[in-house]
Specification:
The chain is built from three helices and 18 strands. Strands 3, 4, 5, 7, 8, 10, 11, 13, 16, 17 and 18 form an eleven-stranded mixed β-sheet that branches. Helix 2 packs antiparallel against helix 3. The protein is globular. The chain starts with a strand and ends in a 12-residue tail after the last helix.
Length: 280
């Protein structure tokens, strides 16, 4: 059975006599849901969990997620588990996410990892549209196969696409048969997890703020030797990145979470408030 699903999530700022509150509204077709909104940091930041009950995608499946963040609103979105791209026979499986943020909006996109099972034909596409004054923290984590379980990535392909149109584009086409890419020192160097953490703004960041973000990330990286293949960079005035290679997901995710918390403090003056589902 093919699962096609779509979800549109809207974060808006609601004003009342009690103050401002970010509220989430969504509509969907097929098996995509948003769980109850939570406010562990107060009313201005709305935490949500995106759920795909089938738990994975096979050939022909398509998931379309669109997220709109209105001016002044702040949403944080994660998932309860990994997105699994299973073995496909002919057609690719596609997950497409589009995030649009209005001026003075903030959004945190923090899904757990995507796993490319051997034999998958998978495309994972993330596109960002940020108005001037909007800012975003997010990450993308990919695991090729399950090497710890003796299930390596031996056939198929995984295509990853990340973009802020006209500013930043990263596209990876990874074929399981491409040993040069997977194992060469100029490729993945034998690692089977690659990850990118990004801070993206709708307008160029000041030089000092960018440098503070880079310094904060590099300090965290120095304290995580298990992710020796990690670096912070800023390819454009609107983008600051941390890129990671690791043999497994766990050390990469631990590093990303630590940098994410450091960037929250440095860039937004917010405390540590990890989504509750990460602890369950």
């Amino acid at each position: 059975m093919v699962w096609n699903a779509s979800l549109h999530l809207n974060y808006a700022l609601r004003e009342s006599t009690e103050g401002s509150k970010t509220v989430a509204h969504f509509n969907h077709t097929g098996p995509l849901r948003i769980l109850q909104s939570l406010y562990p940091e107060g009313d201005k930041i709305c935490h949500n969990v995106l759920v795909h009950p089938p738990g994975g995608l096979v050939g022909g499946d398509t998931l379309n997620v669109s997220i709109d963040v209105a001016s002044g609103a702040h949403g944080l979105l994660t998932t309860p588990g990994a997105t699994r791209f299973y073995r496909s026979q002919r057609e690719p499986a596609l997950q497409r996410t589009v995030i649009t943020a209005a001026d003075d909006a903030r959004i945190e996109w923090l899904p757990l990892e995507s796993i490319a099972y051997s034999g998958c034909l998978a495309k994972n596409h993330l596109s960002l549209q940020l108005a001037p004054g909007a800012e975003m923290l997010g990450w993308d984590v990919t695991a090729l196969g399950l090497p710890a379980a003796g299930k390596p990535f031996e056939s198929g392909y995984f295509c990853q696409h990340l973009e802020l149109p006209g500013v930043w584009l990263e596209r990876a086409n990874i074929k399981a048969a491409d040993a040069l890419l997977l194992d060469s020192p100029v490729g993945l160097a034998g690692h089977r997890c690659f990850a990118t953490l990004f801070f993206v703004a709708g307008t160029k960041l000041g030089r000092e703020r960018r440098q503070h973000a880079l310094d904060a990330a590099r300090q965290v990286i120095e304290r995580h030797p298990q992710c020796a293949t990690a670096a912070a960079t800023s390819p454009d005035g609107q983008v600051v990145l941390v890129r990671v290679l690791a043999p497994l997901v766990e050390p990469a995710m631990a590093l990303l979470r630590a940098v994410w918390l450091a960037w929250r403090r440095e860039l937004w003056q917010l405390g540590a408030s990890s989504p509750r589902i990460w602890s369950t």
